[in-house]
Design goal:
Aminopeptidase, 9 helices
Length: 305
């Protein structure tokens, strides 16, 4: 016989999670890495966990600075304030830690119901992510003349070089990724070494060096015989919107075509407007839009007690 909840009448309480709660929390929350704060909601009548929330130890260092978070309330106990009460505790912890905001650990589909629900809790869009499908055919013929023109006009430095990932300094690539995109160091190391299920492909992932400096990379992994998922396109800020981006993409395309890849799947962020324009010009399509959402601590008077 199933358990019946009537939290609106019996009430609930919020407390810090204990070791005995960890199994339930793992079932309720998505993986978010090491948690700095973990709280649970308890049904007052039956003393059962009906919701959980966690804040990550890792923080987004780009302003507004703050940790990621995850929150889940079981369906029978929603719409009675449990989620907001859990959020209050995370906001308090973030404020005590000096954070400026807390971020949803997972991006939200702008067309989905969850987007409206988070907006109702005070979350706002910090950045949008667009997902694209780009056919490889025609990619090299469009880029090759551009790169050749750049070479003829000495726009590409003589000491610039692009090599496959397997021939690059992987520790340098790791540092480049952490510096510009962040990420979990251990997970990235595993993908760079080839020991993760979604490891970066060592042949068509490409790394740009200028002299002794690692200045850019295209990291991707194969999701099927004909599709490659592009995980990261990184170019040092002083080289963006110039020769580096076009040359990196050309070399990555050539490497992928050589092993039968016909489509690239990848995401673009707001500050990569050149990538979105480039994708449109090459016949790519946008398949989905998601939002990175955050709750700014200084604007959360409604969550204070």
């Amino acid at each position: 016989m199933g358990v019946t909840f009537n939290v609106a009448q019996t009430g609930f309480k919020i407390r810090a999670a204990t070791a005995e709660d960890f199994k339930a929390c793992r079932m309720l929350l998505p993986p978010i890495g090491e948690a700095r704060q973990l709280v649970v909601a308890i049904d007052a009548a039956q003393n059962l966990i009906i919701g959980a929330a966690a804040a990550t130890r890792a923080r987004r260092e780009k302003s507004p600075v703050g940790p990621g978070m995850a929150l889940h309330v079981i369906p029978p106990c929603r719409q009675v304030g449990v989620g907001r009460a859990l959020l209050v505790e995370l906001v308090r912890g973030a404020r005590d830690a000096g954070d400026e905001a807390i971020y949803l650990s997972q991006r939200i589909d702008e067309a989905g119901d969850d987007f409206s629900a988070w907006r109702a809790l005070g979350f706002e869009v910090v950045e949008t992510v667009e997902y694209h499908d780009l056919p490889v055919a025609g990619f090299a013929p469009r880029l090759a003349p551009i790169v050749e023109w750049l070479r003829r006009h000495d726009r590409i430095p003589a000491d610039a070089c692009i090599v496959p990932l397997y021939a690059a300094d992987r520790e340098g690539v790791l540092q480049l990724h952490l510096r510009h995109l962040g990420g979990d160091r251990d997970a990235l190391q595993a993908r760079l070494r080839g020991s993760a299920p979604d490891a970066f492909h060592p042949r068509y992932s490409r790394v740009l060096t200028v002299g002794d400096r690692i200045a850019g990379c295209v990291l991707a992994h194969r999701t099927s015989l004909t599709v490659a998922e592009v995980d990261a396109v990184i170019v040092a800020p002083d080289l963006r919107n110039d020769w580096a981006n076009a040359w990196l993409k050309l070399e990555a395309c050539r490497g992928a075509e050589a092993i039968g890849i016909t489509h690239f799947h990848f995401a673009s962020f707001d500050h990569y407007q050149d990538t979105r324009l480039f994708t449109s010009q090459l016949g790519g399509v946008t398949t989905r839009k998601q939002a990175l959402m955050a709750l700014r601590i200084e604007k959360t008077d409604a969550t204070r007690r």
